[in-house]
Amino acid sequence: MAAKVMQGSSRKSVIFRAGPVRRFCIATIAVLLGASLALSQQSAGGTSTQPHSPHTSNAQPVGKAGSAPAPDVLLGKAQSLLEKGQLSDAEATLREDLKATPQSANAHFLLGYVLFREIQAQAQRDDPQPGAVYMKPGKSLVELREKNAKESLSEYTAGARYQRPSAFDLKIVSLDYVLLADFIDADKWLSLSLKMNPGDSNGWYELGRTKYSENRFAEAIAAFKQCLLLAPKNVKAEENLGLSYAGLGDDPQAITAYQSAIAWQADAVRKDPEPYLDLGTLFLDQNRPKDAVSVLLEATEIAPSVSQAHESLGKAYLQINNLPKAQIELEQAVKLSPDVARLHYVLGQVYRKEGLTDKAKVEFDRCAVLQGTRGPNPNTM
Hints:
This protein is mainly α. It is built from 18 helices and two strands. The longest helix has 22 residues, at 105-126. The protein folds into three domains: 1-61 and 73-192, no CATH class; 200-267, Tetratricopeptide repeat domain (Serine Threonine Protein Phosphatase 5, Tetratricopeptide repeat); 273-381, Serine Threonine Protein Phosphatase 5, Tetratricopeptide repeat, CATH 1.25.40. It has helices at residues 29-41, 52-55, 73-83, 87-100, 105-126, 139-160, 167-179, 183-196, 201-213, 217-230, 235-247, 251-264, 274-285, 289-302, 307-319, 323-336, 341-353, 357-370, and strands at residues 4-7, 12-15.
C-alpha cells in the first residue's frame, strides 16, 4: 500500500502506513540491518546512521511558530542510552517522554529509529556470524520485524504531524518498508530521501537493493554506480552491481563486477564471501565447473558455515564427475541446512551415481517428506 499524504486543517501530514505484510522471501536481514547501516557510517558527505544528527536538528515544527521549547531532558537521556546500545531502556525513556510531550517530533522520530534498531540487535543476537545473511530468520525475529517495523512507521507518522522528517528519517522509513517486503513504498521514500541528501552513498546502495528487489535491474545498476562514485571500491555495491547485470542477462559485465569485488578485498582480514559465491554460481550456470571450483573453494574457506557455498561446490564437483568430493561438500551442506529439500535430492543423486543405493533412497525419501506428499522433482526445488 502506498504511503499517502493527507490534508489536515492547516498543513499536510505524511502517513507512513504499512499495508498487508507480504512474504519476506529473501534472507538478507543482516545485510539490511548490519552491513548496510555500517556503510552509511562511511558515506561521503558526512552522512551517518547516528540518530543525534536528524533528531536534534534546529528544524522548526511544521505550522508552529513561537519561542524555542525548553530542552528535553528525557530525549537527551534516551539519545545517550541509544548510543550505549541500551535499546530497551531508550525505548522506555522515549515512551515516558511522549506521555508528557506527545507533540515532540524528535521523540517520535527517535522512537521510530530505536524500534528499527531493535530488529537489528535481534538479528545479530540470532546469528552474529557472517553466514547470517544466508539463514532463514527464526520465528521470534520474523514477529519482531513485523511488529517493530509497523510501530516504527507509526512513530514517524506521528512525528511528521509536527515536523518535516529529515532525509535520514525517510531512509529509515524506507528500510521499515523493505523489512515488510513493500518495495514500492521503500522506493518512493528512499528516492525522496536522496533528493534531500544526494551525497548519501548508503542511500544509493539501499535504493539499488530496492530496485533490484523490484526486478528493475537497469535502475539498480544506476543506483549502485552512483554509490560507487561516492564510495569507491565499496565491495557490497560492486557485488550487487554484478547481481544487477546478471539480472539483465549481461554475464560478462556481471563477471567483471564480481571479480572487482573479490580483488578489492584481497588484503582484507575479514572477507565477504558473497562475490565468490555469486561468481562461482554464474560459472556453474555457464557450464564452467572447473572455473567454479576454484572460486567456490575460496567461498567455503571464508564462510565454512554457509550451506549454499558447499552446495554450489558440491554441484561443481558433480559436473566434473569428482563424486567423492561432491559427496563431502553436499553432506556438509545437508548438515548445515537439514530442512532444505533440494540438498537431500542432489546428495541422493551423488549416492546413486556411487552405487550407494540405500543411502540414495534415504535422501530421496527425506526430500519427499520435506516437500510434503510430492515425490522429489528437481524442477520444483
